[in-house]
Write a structure and sequence with these properties.
The protein has 217 residues and is an alpha/beta fold. Strand 1, helix 4 (60-67) and strand 2 (73-77) form a beta-alpha-beta unit. Strands 3-2-1-4-5-7-6 form a 7-stranded mixed β-sheet, with helices on both faces. It has helices spanning 9-12, 15-28, 32-44, 60-67, 83-92, 131-140, 155-170, 182-190; strands at residues 51-54, 73-77, 99-103, 116-122, 142-151, 194-201, 205-212. It has a single domain, classed as 3-Layer(aba) Sandwich (Rossmann fold). Helix content is 39%, strand content 22%.
């Protein structure tokens, strides 16, 4: 499955991006979309809920879920540049003993990633070339909940993504961004036994939450 891995990810999401994300989180907390994702899971009950965050960055979303009662959390990331910043944030919050981080691609190394009660992906699907493989791998590991954010499929955003990718090519960067059809994203999760439970469309980002039906329901 090496064809599915995002190229040039670590170059774009390097040390500068990690430091910027930490500064933003310390000043303002989660962005509006991330807050919505946490609020949804909080409403479903977070006590003792294990979390798997794919594409965790500095781990801000996981930290907020842990503060709300979830735990433990496993954070997956592809870029090593986030590790020191994420560890510092976890220590500041007194949550370092409840967080584990791994540098791993869940699509490439599915068997190395355990299941969790809640799987979250915030602004991650648009960074991966094969949304079916990524969402499918995430859904397979979601015991109860899968909550994702991704760009709305609008003409303006598709044009913006094309312009960004042209710029990346001019810079000779391998990374590309993607506007995947929401219907295809949801279908990838539904084929793994999850059912849509919540959807919200903001100006740019769309949030989708899916749940697994209780056994025997």
């Amino acid at each position: 499955m090496s064809c599915c891995a995002p190229k040039g990810y670590a170059k774009l999401f390097g040390g500068r991006a990690a430091r910027r994300d930490v500064r933003r989180y310390r000043r303002k907390g989660l962005d509006e979309t991330g807050e919505l994702m946490v609020r949804y899971l909080r409403g479903r009950g977070l006590a003792g809920v294990s979390v798997l965050e794919i594409g965790a960055g500095v781990g801000a979303l996981s930290l907020e879920l842990l503060k709300a009662g979830a735990g433990p959390a496993l954070e997956l990331e592809l870029s090593p540049a986030y590790e020191d910043q994420a560890a510092e944030l976890a220590r500041e919050a007194g949550l370092e003993d409840r967080v584990e981080r791994r540098l791993v691609d869940v699509v490439q190394e599915r068997e190395a990633v355990p299941a969790a009660d809640a799987v979250v992906m915030h602004r991650v699907v648009c960074c991966y070339p094969d949304s079916d493989a990524l969402v499918g791998a995430a859904a397979e590991r979601a015991r109860h909940f899968l909550v994702m954010s991704f760009p709305r499929d609008r003409r303006l955003f598709r044009a913006g993504a094309r312009a960004l990718n042209i710029w990346f090519r001019l810079l000779r960067w391998d990374f590309r961004t993607f506007i995947h059809p929401p219907a295809a994203i949801l279908a990838a999760a539904e084929r793994r036994g999850l059912r849509p439970a919540f959807e919200h469309s903001g100006r740019i980002w769309q949030v989708a939450a899916l749940e697994r039906a209780a056994s025997g329901a």
